[in-house]
């Protein structure tokens, strides 16, 4: 029976040994040929990077088939796009109603028409104010000539502006201490330089106004500026994080290997893996985004793991007295199967991000998965070939008893019965906190407080509305339906309902125009500030008003072409995704009850982000479970043991869930960034489990070691590599946590937490589990 078992294991391991034997022989005896082949493949792949583009539009986070995006684009096709650059003017004396401030607003309003891609400019200066004058209705700019204003006229303008519903909390604050100039823009979407160029011109214009009017401070927000902020954070990440990550990796490599040659080989491998991944993505004409642009940083981090396992094994073999080529070959023999398995599992984890509702996360996962595949290829070919050619010396041999891993192995074996319940209880406590997380998000908070856009947007939200909006398209399904008195009354009731909601800052609707025109037609008598009671009257008011409007300030952004429908824009306070969805649901319920015959569509950038966060979490749960199933089958097949494959799930799945328990104690809000972490980390945390179990099984089956001795063997051969590679991964994701882009920083921090827990469990929980599974350790060697 014993011989039969050995024969069975030989048959199982024969394919791996045959491949690794041929490969190790080839790379050590023909290194120059290998290098020529490798560099040819890398050049072919990386040349695709010339096709890479960059997409900074916030809508890139929504797939083309996303129902919310389709609805919003349909709404914008009827009306105008609401992408904008919003200037907030803060005068030095906390009042815009003085000659200097009004002149600054007027100059900014006029100059803003010259901004790239601008289609409309609105401010209190060019607001189309209507009033009665000797039986005539005058419709003109509220401030036609700021330079010639008297104090009396300024007071009159102030009274009008602060009592105009279409201005207050939209273009002027309630007490008049700040004002806004809104520039609607339509970016063609052909180049990321569009938003950069627009932002540069906007900032230059703001600087010119500030220099001409000392004490005036201008802040810039708006959806168009958010698109530029996406570009800036991506550039910031690449300029700051990549050099920092290189420094961390080079430092860890030097401390671990104490070899310039080995360090050089790993750094070269990382660069080639990144170039291959980005080039491959470029061959498919992919566009980088702020999320996918950090993929090189992750590839850099993940690629180091396999390199270190190979190099540390080479060093150990040389310390044991083997000649360099023999040490390289033996390292490839022992690491070939676990490296292949860990790379496949890591790739599966990142490929699981294709279940994400947000295309940038899909691209991120695909780029990193490609980089992992490239790193695997380079680790098995380029790395050993370079080490064969480059000078490398082993460190002075240390006694095994002096190694920290030897002492850790003794500790784990001695206290295995206590470690199982203690670690299990600790994990269960953390897992118990995981349900306390709230599925929530705020898209403005995707940008850290160090980002200028975030600072300006926070100021806008505090003093003059904000950029959180919901747009409603209310269609009567009949031509001229918006002029029907019944529809107008219902629309006005909806307007009143919206204004009473605690989340509402401002409501932009045509009913306020109809009321003002009706008052004007009755000699500005306040008691006639009401809706017209006949369709013919409403039609005449509307026609008169439209004919009086200057070019660029028409009502096309509020009423559709055949006047069958109208758009209502509600500006909201900064709301979380949960609050945003609750507001939408509440308003739709009102419309369904009180305006049942009206066709309703809702949309906005904020609303789309709120929905995609919820959809993404559900999709990623499905994707993560499928990835877990695939990885479990791979491990069961690789270890040829159902029970061992199932045992490995415990240290693989527990870290992600326990990390969410820690997150519940730190923050408690799970949004778009954290919804993909489980899939990412699942593929990575499996790596250490595979290496440890592989070495344990190797000792038990091929060396015929007892249970305790096999644990010591696993610790001595792979323990050091496990904690060093984990340290590199943790440091890499901690570096990512310093990104000013919260989607990246939260993902980095959460992944680092997960990997830390995984390291703890792989070294302190997995060995006792293996000993429990393998029988009573007291009766083993």
TrEMBL record:
Looking at the UniProt record for this protein, which Gene Ontology cellular component terms does it annotate, in alphabetical order? plasma membrane
Q: Where in the cell is it found?
A: Cell membrane
The record, for Pfam families, names:
MMPL
SSD domain: from which residue to which, for each copy?
Answer: 264-389, 644-772
**Which coarse location class describes where this protein primarily resides?**
membrane
* Membrane topology, from the record: Multi-pass membrane protein
From the record, give the transmembrane residue ranges. 30-54, 241-257, 264-286, 292-314, 335-355, 367-392, 413-434, 620-639, 646-666, 672-693, 721-743, 749-773
For this UniProt record, the keywords arranged alphabetically read as follows:
Cell membrane, Membrane, Transmembrane, Transmembrane helix
Fetch the InterPro entries from UniProt: MMPL_dom, Mycobact_MmpL, SSD
Q: What is this protein called?
A: SSD domain-containing protein
Q: Which organism is it from?
A: Methylotuvimicrobium alcaliphilum (strain DSM 19304 / NCIMB 14124 / VKM B-2133 / 20Z) (Methylomicrobium alcaliphilum)
Q: What is the lineage of its organism?
A: Bacteria, Pseudomonadati, Pseudomonadota, Gammaproteobacteria, Methylococcales
């Amino acid at each position: 029976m014993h011989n039969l078992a050995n024969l069975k294991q030989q048959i199982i391991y024969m394919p791996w040994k045959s491949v690794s034997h041929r490969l190790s022989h080839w790379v050590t005896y023909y290194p120059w040929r290998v290098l020529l082949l490798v560099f040819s493949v890398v050049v072919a792949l990386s040349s695709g990077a010339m096709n890479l583009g960059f997409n900074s539009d916030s809508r890139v986070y929504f797939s083309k088939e996303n129902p919310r995006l389709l609805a919003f684009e349909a709404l914008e096709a009827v009306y105008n796009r609401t992408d904008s650059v919003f200037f907030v003017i803060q005068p030095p004396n906390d009042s815009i109603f003085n000659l200097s401030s009004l002149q600054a607003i007027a100059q900014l309003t006029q100059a803003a028409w010259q901004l790239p891609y601008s289609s409309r400019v609105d401010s209190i200066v060019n607001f189309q104010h209507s009033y009665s004058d000797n039986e005539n209705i005058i419709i003109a700019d509220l401030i036609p000539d700021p330079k010639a204003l008297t104090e009396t006229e300024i007071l009159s303008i102030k009274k009008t502006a602060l009592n105009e519903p279409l201005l207050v909390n939209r273009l002027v604050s309630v007490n008049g201490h700040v004002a806004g100039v809104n520039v609607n823009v339509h970016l063609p979407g052909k180049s990321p330089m569009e938003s950069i160029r627009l932002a540069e011109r906007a900032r230059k214009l703001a600087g010119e106004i500030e220099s001409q009017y000392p004490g005036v401070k201008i802040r810039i927000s708006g959806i168009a500026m958010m698109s530029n902020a996406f570009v800036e954070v991506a550039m910031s990440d690449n300029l700051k994080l990549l050099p920092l990550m290189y420094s961390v990796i080079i430092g860890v490599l030097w401390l671990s290997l104490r070899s310039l040659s080995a360090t050089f080989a790993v750094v070269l491998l990382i660069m080639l893996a990144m170039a291959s991944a980005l080039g491959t993505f470029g061959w498919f004409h992919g566009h980088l985004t702020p999320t996918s642009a950090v993929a090189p940083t992750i590839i850099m981090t993940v690629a180091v793991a396999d390199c270190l396992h190979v190099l540390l094994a080479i060093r150990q073999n040389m310390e044991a007295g083997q000649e360099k080529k023999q040490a390289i070959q033996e390292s490839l023999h022992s690491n070939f199967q676990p490296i292949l398995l860990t790379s496949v599992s890591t790739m599966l984890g990142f490929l699981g991000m294709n279940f994400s509702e947000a295309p940038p996360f899909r691209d991120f996962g695909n780029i990193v998965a490609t980089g992992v595949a490239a790193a695997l290829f380079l680790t098995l070919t380029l790395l050993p070939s370079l080490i064969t050619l480059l000078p490398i010396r082993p460190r002075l041999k240390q006694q095994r008893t002096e190694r920290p891993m030897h002492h850790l192995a003794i500790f784990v074996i001695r206290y295995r019965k206590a470690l199982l319940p203690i670690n299990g209880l600790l994990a269960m406590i953390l897992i118990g906190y995981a349900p306390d997380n709230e599925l929530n998000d705020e898209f403005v908070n995707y940008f850290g407080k160090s980002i200028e856009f975030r600072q300006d947007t926070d100021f806008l939200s505090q003093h003059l509305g904000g950029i959180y909006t919901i747009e409603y398209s209310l269609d009567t399904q009949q031509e001229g339906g918006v002029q029907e008195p019944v529809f107008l009354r219902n629309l006005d009731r909806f307007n009143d309902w919206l204004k009473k909601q605690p989340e509402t800052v401002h409501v932009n609707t045509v009913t306020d125009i109809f009321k003002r025109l009706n008052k004007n037609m009755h000699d500005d008598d306040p008691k006639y500030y009401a809706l017209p009671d006949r369709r013919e009257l409403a039609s005449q008011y509307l026609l008169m008003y439209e004919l009086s409007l200057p070019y660029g300030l028409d009502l096309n952004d509020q009423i559709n072409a055949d006047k069958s429908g109208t758009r209502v824009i509600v500006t909201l306070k900064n709301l979380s995704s949960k609050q945003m969805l609750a507001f939408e649901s509440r308003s739709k319920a009102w419309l369904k009850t009180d305006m049942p015959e009206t066709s309703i569509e809702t949309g906005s950038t904020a609303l789309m982000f709120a929905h995609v966060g919820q959809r993404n979490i559900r999709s990623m749960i499905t994707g993560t479970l499928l990835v877990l199933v695939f990885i479990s089958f791979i491990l069961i097949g690789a270890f040829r043991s159902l029970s061992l494959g199932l045992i490995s799930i415990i240290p693989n799945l527990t870290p992600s869930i326990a990390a969410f328990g820690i997150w519940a104690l730190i923050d408690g809000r799970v949004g778009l960034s954290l919804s993909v972490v489980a899939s990412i980390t699942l593929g990575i945390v499996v790596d250490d489990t595979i290496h440890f179990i592989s070495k344990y099984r190797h000792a038990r089956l091929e060396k015929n070691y007892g249970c305790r001795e096999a644990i010591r063997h696993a610790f001595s051969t792979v323990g050091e590599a496990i904690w060093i590679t984990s340290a590199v991964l943790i440091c890499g994701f901690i570096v990512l946590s310093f990104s000013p882009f919260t989607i990246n920083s939260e993902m980095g921090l959460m992944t680092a937490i997960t990997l830390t827990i995984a390291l703890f469990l792989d070294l302190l929980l997995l060995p006792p589990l293996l000993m429990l599974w393998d029988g009573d350790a007291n009766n083993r060697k």
